Backbone:
């Protein structure tokens, strides 16, 4: 009890509060802060996303409510809240109403383990990385429940496709996630950040980062993996029957999930709050994390707004025949090379306390192996692409010929 | 039993586990049944947290709720009538005897050690970390044989599944 009671709690105790109550209050404030950050962020995120999408599509985007349209989201929220809250008569009432809550909670809960600064985090779980994966699976559950409880065929079809997509892409995601865990020798996100003091993990294994990036884009259901919504095929997908703020919660959960993934990637591969002068003040560390996460977030928006949707069979084939074998191979290569280097005394046993200089040989060799893998992969992809192109050209030529003959 | 955070947590997770299990057998709606199953499995994950085994708790949620229960939902959604199941098992007596026997065996198995020579052990001071768990799994004096056997079994199951699902023509 004593060592738990620091900061706000000790101030409360000094001012005469009961120890148990003070601890409870300070923990409550902590919980409110950690869950409040994402809730506030999402309001801003929706505005950013709409602005970025508008610019990419050569529009201006929201610009009427408030300065440069900043208050647009608030206005939308009021609109959503004041809308009629419809529950279809044939819906499963409890599940239908619980699904948006679970969906949003599954994203907010992730923020509990995110280390904002060296000293500020919700909780430093020993199993942080695993917690991230476990909590994310609640999102899948929410979508499934929403799709079924709506009692609508489009919703059900949407849910089917989503779950197939999410469950499949979880496999390469976890394998890619294992690489930073392996390098840091710990699943705690705080330790993973600390282990990148010498070198960011993205340099040690860029391939793992790329796999993680692609799979997390799929996990959030963003283009080119936006089967979840597929407006042109499924009307709106699993959330077709939802209206008002219940729809708003699914919507907000998706936006927040994308940004959260950006932050997670910054933590796993880009050194989290590491950056020049981060030790001077927690605020600088926080800004570094936000900047890195935000930058990754912007690239996902860019990707979302520029690429078309893939067919479901293409997405599945890409995952199971390309990403999964690749992620497994990458994990094996990284772990094997790292262990070999440690046996040869070229790499430090413990990356947590290793400096930049110590890590240089490890980095160079790991990077070399990763580069070789990427080079080989690009070769395969080029060959496959060429074959596919040749086939489609041949098919087109044949079609043109038959059409010509048929015409006369 | 003193009232502290752990005992409150124990009560809450027991309600989750047993209530969920009751829901699974009581509901006549298959989809709701799987949701109840998830509630029950979630309660079990809570027990792992109370027993200072966060790794097992996370794995419980990841594997049982995230993968197995989702797969069950998938299978349930593909069956014809989810909501209104008319069929009933009519052989009540054998079922009753079988479940009663099982319940009694479990009850005795759980309660006898409490009254036996072994008094209930208090939670040891040293809490094994995830690192210890990982080391034990690959330690030759630990669980390396069961671990490898389980791996082989799962791989065989996966290959079997692929073989069965494969299209004959290709």
Residues:
């Amino acid at each position: 009890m004593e060592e738990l009671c620091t900061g706000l709690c000790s101030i409360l105790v000094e001012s005469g509060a009961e120890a148990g109550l003070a601890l409870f209050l300070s923990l409550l404030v902590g919980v409110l802060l950690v869950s409040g950050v994402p809730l506030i962020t999402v309001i801003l995120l929706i505005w950013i996303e709409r602005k970025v999408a508008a610019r990419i599509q050569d529009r201006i985007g929201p610009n009427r409510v408030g300065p440069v349209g900043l208050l647009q989201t608030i206005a939308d929220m009021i609109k959503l809240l004041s809308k009629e809250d419809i529950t279809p008569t044939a819906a499963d009432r409890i599940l239908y109403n619980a699904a948006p809550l679970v969906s949003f909670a599954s994203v907010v809960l992730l923020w509990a383990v995110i280390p904002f600064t060296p000293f500020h985090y919700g909780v430093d779980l020993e199993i942080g990385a695993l917690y991230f994966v476990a909590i994310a699976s609640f999102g899948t559950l929410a979508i499934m429940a929403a799709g079924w409880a709506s009692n609508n065929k489009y919703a059900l079809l949407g849910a089917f496709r989503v779950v197939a997509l999410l469950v499949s892409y979880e496999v390469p995601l976890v394998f890619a996630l294992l690489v930073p865990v392996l390098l840091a020798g710990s699943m705690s996100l705080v330790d993973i950040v600390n282990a990148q003091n010498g070198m960011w993990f993205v340099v040690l294994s860029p391939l793992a980062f790329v796999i993680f990036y692609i799979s997390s884009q799929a996990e959030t259901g963003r283009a080119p993996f936006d089967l979840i919504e597929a407006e042109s095929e499924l009307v709106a997908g699993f959330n077709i029957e939802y209206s008002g703020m219940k729809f708003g919660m699914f919507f907000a959960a998706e936006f927040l999930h994308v940004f959260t993934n950006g932050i997670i990637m910054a933590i796993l591969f880009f050194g989290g709050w590491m950056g020049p002068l981060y030790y001077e003040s927690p605020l600088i560390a926080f800004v570094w994390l936000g900047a890195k996460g935000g930058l990754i977030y912007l690239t996902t928006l860019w990707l979302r707004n520029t690429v078309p949707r893939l067919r479901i069979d293409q997405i599945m084939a890409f995952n199971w025949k390309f990403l999964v074998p690749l992620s497994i191979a990458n994990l094996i290569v990284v772990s094997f090379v790292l262990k070999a280097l440690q046996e040869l005394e070229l790499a430090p046993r413990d990356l947590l306390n290793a400096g930049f200089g110590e890590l240089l040989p490890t980095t160079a060799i790991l990077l070399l192996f990763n580069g070789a893998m990427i080079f080989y992969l690009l070769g395969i992809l080029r060959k496959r692409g060429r074959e596919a192109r040749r086939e489609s050209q041949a098919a087109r030529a044949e079609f043109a010929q038959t059409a010509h003959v048929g015409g006369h | 039993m003193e009232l502290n955070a752990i005992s409150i947590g124990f009560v809450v997770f027991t309600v989750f586990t047993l209530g969920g299990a009751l829901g699974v057998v009581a509901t006549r709606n298959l989809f709701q049944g799987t949701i109840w199953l998830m509630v029950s499995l979630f309660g079990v994950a809570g027990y792992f947290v109370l027993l200072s085994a966060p790794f097992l708790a996370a794995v419980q949620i990841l594997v049982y709720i995230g993968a197995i229960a989702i797969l069950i939902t998938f299978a349930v959604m593909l069956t014809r009538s989810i909501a209104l199941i008319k069929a009933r098992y009519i052989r009540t007596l054998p079922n009753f005897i079988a479940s009663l026997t099982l319940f009694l065996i479990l009850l005795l198995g759980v309660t006898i050690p409490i009254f036996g020579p072994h008094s209930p052990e208090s939670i040891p001071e040293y809490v094994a970390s995830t690192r210890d768990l990982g080391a034990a799994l690959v330690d030759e004096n630990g669980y390396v044989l069961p671990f490898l056997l389980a791996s082989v079994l799962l791989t065989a199951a996966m290959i079997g599944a692929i073989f069965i699902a494969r299209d004959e023509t290709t």
User: Anything to note?
Assistant: Residues 48 and 54 of chain B are 6 Å apart (CA to CA). The helical segments of chain B are 5-26, 30-50, 54-77, 92-115, 130-138, 144-165. The interface with chain A takes residues 29, 31-32, 35, 38, 54-55, 58-59, 61-62, 65-67, 69-71, 73-74, 77, 129-130 of chain B (CB under 8 Å). The mean pLDDT of chain B is 81.
